[in-house]
Amino acid sequence: MPFRPRYTGLIERYRDRLPVSADTKIISLGEGNTPLLKLNNIPKHIGKNVEIYVKYEGLNPTGSFKDRGMTMAVTKAVEAGSKAIICASTGNTSAAAAAYAARAGITAFVLIPDGKIALGKLAQAMMHDAVVIQIKGNFDEGMQLVKDVAEHAPVTIVNSINPYRLQGQKTAAFEIVEELGRAPDYHCLPVGNAGNITAHWIGYSEYASKCGDHVTDACALCHGECKFTKDAVISSRPKMVGYQAAGSAPFMRGEMVDNPETVATAIRIGHPQSWDMAWKVKEESEGWFDECDDDTILAAQKLLAEKEGIFCEPASATSLAGAIRDIQSGKIPEGSVVVCTLTGHGLKDPDIAIKQSSSPLITVDANLDAVRDAILGNLAK
Length: 381
Ligand code: AN7
Description:
Radius of gyration: 21 Å
Distance between the termini: 45 Å
Bound molecules: ligand AN7
Order of helices and strands: HEHEHEHEHEHEHHEHHEHHEHHEHH
Helix content: 25-40%
Number of strands: 10
Strand order of the largest sheet: 1-2-10-7-8-9
Strand content: 5-15%
Mean pLDDT: 94
């Protein structure tokens, strides 16, 4: 039988570029190594000659990109002797924290906005036996409480202010480069706390660097944690484009937003934790920020599901929604190679998916005639 080494997660895969030692006990659920799918139908649908790839991060073990950062954060927390981790979350971070804490045999405390996280994410936190603390407030208030309480209790914060999180998340950029054999021209992401856009820029910058020094500005972003090899892997870096939900778009307003609101609950964040770093990423990469309203986000989520068979959660579709608009306007020119990160799986938020589905459910009697009629009546659909 042909032999293929078992994939054991991104820390093992990128050990030489991550802050771990030979003795580090790795806490992994086999995260990373997600598909980079080329869209076949949407470029034709919008009538533009572009290569659009989606990085399907919803296929990580807990269904979102958060697993990349969480394997690092929990590995390092355990290495430091921590017995408990804590995070504030719009849902996906709490799901990942709960799962990796379970894997490590430590306790996870998660603060979530009461009634404002998608059902799948709540189910995950509960199933993995996290201590779920619902606060009568939003993510931003939860984040402040986490920072405050961590000064009074023996808990390690695993939000993306923990620098190990971005170190894990930068590996998504490595995977993209390895599959494309180059960096894309544009990399589009949904932006909430702006940790992920920053992490990708660290990853691309690391692959574009030539020496062992911390030579680029991006390097300073990672607090000296990144490790360069001698040879540059890529000769150019992408323009980084961050899209926000219109009701929750502090990067568009140029200031913090106190009462963010959007159907894309994952990015219902008004006080981004990586504010300064994300502005730096935008400037260094010559990219931009923009916003999409909720209807545009949901339309992109549906289009992707209908035309390509790929199901992502609403927040994730923000990257594609913005990219399509910028491709149509020519801001992203024809001939470009574009990567959109799909940060989380569609199954995370079944309520929104069912609510906006255009196909009605057909209920018929359990007999051949009724089922045949239902089929013949819908063949042309
Ligand atoms: C699906 O889980 O902040 O800009 O607490 O779940 O790196 O914050 C989630 C963020 C995009 C934004 N897409 O990423 C949390 C949380 C999905 C997300 C983002 C999130 P960042």
